[in-house]
Every structure is written in C-alpha cells, then in structure tokens.
Amino acid sequence: MLQQHQQQQHQGLQQTLQQTLQVSQAQAQAIAQAQAALQHQVAQSIQQQQQTLQEHIQAVQQQQIQAALQRQSATLQELQQQAQQQALQQATVNKARMPRSRPYNKPRGRMTAYAFFVQTCREEHKKKYPDVSVIFAAFSKKCAERWNTMSEKEKQRFHEMAEQDKHRFDLEMQNYVPPKDMKVRGRKRQQMKDPNAPKRSLSAFFLFCNDERSKVKAGNPEYTMGDIAKELGRRWAAADPETKAKYDALSEKDKARYDREMTAYKKGPLAQPPPQPPVVPAIEDEGGDFDADEEYN
C-alpha cells in the first residue's frame, strides 16, 4: 500500500512538473512574441524617424539651394546694373573726352565754382583710386551732398577759380568777332551803340590787365590770346592785397566818371559836359583797341 501511494505521488509530481513546464514554455513563447513585436515596433519607429529626418534634410537643403539661387540672381542683377552704369559712364566719359568743336574758334565757356569743385573731386578720386571706375550718378550725388555741407570759407577757393575763368572768358570775348554769316540762335539782335554814349567803367581786373598785358606779350611773344588771358588771370590771383586795393580804387574812380558822364548823357547833348579822358588808356592788340563797352559783367 505504501509503495502504491508513493507511485501515485510521484506521478502527480510529474504531471505538475509537466504542467509547469508547459506553462513556462507558453510564457517563453509569449515573451518571444512580445520581444519580436517590440523589435518590429522599434524598427518601424527608427525607419519613420529616419524618413522624417531625411525629409527634413531635403527640405533644408532645398531651402538653402533656393536661397543660394536667389543670392546669385540678386548678384547677377547687381552686376548687370553695374555694367550698365559703367557703360553709361564710359559713354559719358568718351563723350566728354571728344573734342567739342567751337564754331569759328569761339572762346571756351566759363566754368562755375561748382564745376571746378566737381573737377577737383574727380582728380582726387583718380589719384586715390586709379584703377576704380567712377559711377557717374553716384559720384555726382556725393559731390552735391559734400558741396551743400561745405562752408563759404571752404567754397571760397572755387569761387576764386570761377572768377579767374570768368576773367579769362571776358578777355577772350573782347577779341572774338563772329563771322557775318554765322547764325546765332536763341539770342536777341544786338542793338546799335550810340557813338556818343559814355564808355563803360572798367573793373579792377581789367585795369590790372591794361597795365600787365603788354608785359606778358613782351615776355612771351609766342602766346596766343587764350594764353595771355590765362597768364593775366594767374597774375591777378597771385597779386598782393595792396596791388588789388590800388586797382579797386582806380575802378571806383572810373565808375564815378562813368556815372557822371551817363547822367549828363541822359539829360541831353546841351547839358553834356565835354568828354573826359578815361582813367587808364585803352590797350591795343591784334584784334583792335580795347573797348570798355565790351566788358562782360
């Protein structure tokens, strides 16, 4: 009986062990399936993240490419604009360098103080940047802004240069006689002068020229009228204040003479006194006598 009972217990234990083993196998299989499912999910998640990252990289690269293309397009447009401006500037320079034909050797027109200022700025820029082309529009704008901020003292030397050029032009125009067949457009016909009208007064510069012109011609016989005018302008600019004061006084005296004679001339021939000699005698030149009535103000 005892042996039979032990056998039954042993069989029961074996059955329990088998059941436990089956349960363990089922659990192991379930764990394996869960691990497989988890690995599959992780793999899918990694694949999705890689795909998202690749899409993001592609989008960033596309944005960078578009930005680079836009920059290249803007640079190309800027280069085209610069090329157009340089072409326009070169055309302007070429046009300025072309010799302008003045009809019948007419004297070159006088320059203003601002024109001398711009010319000086261009020379300074050319010396400082000899290999850099000047954009005409931008350069002109900068010159205008700089001119507007300058004081009268800073502008003074350019006004003196313009005054000298005006004297040069006036002197050259004194001896310029346009041909009879030359047509002048846009100007009124010059009225005939009354030979009895008083001679106009001379400025201090012209009185100075009356004294110095013969000296310039004697020392430089090869000088043309333009050369003489430039030399007289240079000497006047270099004259000391005492010399200029002397001719200013003579000019005031000659102006008083002119006012006196003009007053008498306007009253009529009966009240007109006998003509008085001018303060300074007229100078002679290849083109004829110097006439005070021809002075340009």
TrEMBL record:
InterPro entries: HMG_box_dom, HMG_box_dom_sf, HMGB. Residues 107-177, 198-266 form the HMG box domain. It comes from Bombyx mori. Residues 271-280 have a biased composition (Pro residues). Residues 283-297 have a biased composition (Acidic residues). Belongs to the HMGB family. This is Dsp protein. Residues 43-89 form a coiled coil. The keyword NADP does not apply. GO terms for molecular function: DNA binding. It is found in: Chromosome; Nucleus. Pfam families: HMG_box (PF00505), HMG_box_2 (PF09011). Transmembrane segments: none annotated. GO terms for cellular component: chromosome; nucleus. Residues 265-297 are annotated as: Disordered. Keywords: Chromosome, Coiled coil, DNA-binding, Nucleus, Repeat. SMART domains: HMG (SM00398).
